[in-house]
Amino acid sequence: MNKKLLTLLLASFMALSLAACGQKTGGAAAGGSGSSAASEPSSSALTENPGEAMENLPVYPNTVGPLPSETEKLPALEKLIADQWEIPQKALADTVYLYNYIDLNNDGTDEIFAAVLGSYTSGSGGDSALIASQSADGTWTLTQAFTLVREPVLVSDYTTNGWRDLIIPQYGGGESGCYRVLSADANGKYPNVGDGKAVGDGENPSSLGDVSGNAILYNDVAADRTAGSLLTLG
Question: Which of 10, 33, 91, 150 has CA 20 to 30 A from 61's CA?
Answer without folding.
Answer: 33
